[in-house]
Design a protein that fits this description.
about 280 residues, alpha+beta, single chain, 10 strands, Alpha-Beta Plaits
């Protein structure tokens, strides 16, 4: 049977020092913590999809629906905890109107999910609209970084773009290989775009991206910079995790010692916080 590949963004992100956490048991219930983080990110995806749909109703789809029906649809989504598709089907009373609206919205849905294999989080997404997918995927990556720091875990990763196949916990394809290979190169906390992903998104002018969902635009999420990696670095996109600074400092302050094999990553990460701060002022 021929596999049906999907095109989209793929992020691999793993926990730094997981072996040490497991062996020394310095972290309470590390496995449960990872599962809690995954559940939190899954909830964030659900909430962000609802906010994204609200954004579409107010912008891209505002000419396809009147205000009274828009309010009714949002009520179904937020108060009754229904999916976007369920909300659409339940609010349109005319099959003809429903059909027209589904045609109008067909190019906007963003499918995104998070999986967990051992200490590695895998975020996959797909959409006909690469601009919105880029925004949503980056926002979820930022949420993952901050949630891991909040839970006392340091995480590094890489985001690629291309074809992939996923069924349950089976992941294959060029985008999978690209992200999996590059995320192991990271020498600091954070998530960066691989060269392949940068080539794909390079034509997008971030300063002109007027996407704002939940009061965050793309410039609150990604910044151009050079990641600290084990090979020659390059200009790419980095996820801004400056809001996790206090969590990061709290984690490092509890280390009984900073061994040579990890001191570089900590120093690089601390310098990255200074870089993020400089970009905000």
């Amino acid at each position: 049977m021929e596999l049906e590949y999907t095109s989209g963004f793929v992020t691999f992100a793993d926990i730094l020092g997981w072996k040490g956490i497991w062996q020394t048991n310095n972290h309470k219930n590390p496995v449960n913590t990872l599962i809690e983080i995954k559940d939190t990110i899954t909830d964030s995806i659900s909430l962000m999809n609802k906010r994204y749909f609200e954004h579409l109703l107010n912008t891209e789809l505002k000419n396809h629906i009147d205000n009274d029906l828009k309010k009714e649809m949002l009520d179904y989504i937020f108060r009754r905890n229904l999916s976007i598709n369920e909300s659409i089907s339940k609010t349109f009373k005319s099959k003809d109107d429903l059909k027209k609206f589904k045609v109008a919205i067909s190019s906007f849905p963003v499918e995104i999910k998070v999986d967990l294999i051992s200490d590695t989080f895998i975020i996959t997404s797909t959409s006909k609209n690469q601009c919105y997918e880029f925004y949503m995927h980056m926002l979820i990556c930022q949420r993952l970084l901050l949630e891991c720091l909040k839970q006392g875990l340091l995480i590094r990763g890489a985001t690629s773009y291309g074809e992939y196949y996923n069924k349950e916990l089976v992941f294959i394809g060029p985008a999978i290989d690209d992200s999996a290979s590059w995320h192991e190169m990271g020498e600091e906390i954070g998530i960066f775009f691989t060269p392949k992903a940068m080539f794909m998104i390079n034509s997008v002018d971030l300063s002109k991206m007027e996407i704002i969902i939940g009061d965050l635009n793309i410039l609150d999420i990604v910044i151009s910079g050079e990641p600290n990696i084990k090979v020659s670095t390059f200009e790419t996109f980095l996820i801004d995790w400056y809001d996790g600074k206090d969590y990061f400092n709290g984690i490092i302050s509890k280390y009984p010692t900073i061994l040579p094999e990890i001191h570089k990553k900590i120093l690089y990460s601390n310098s990255r916080l200074d870089f993020f701060k400089s970009q905000r002022t």
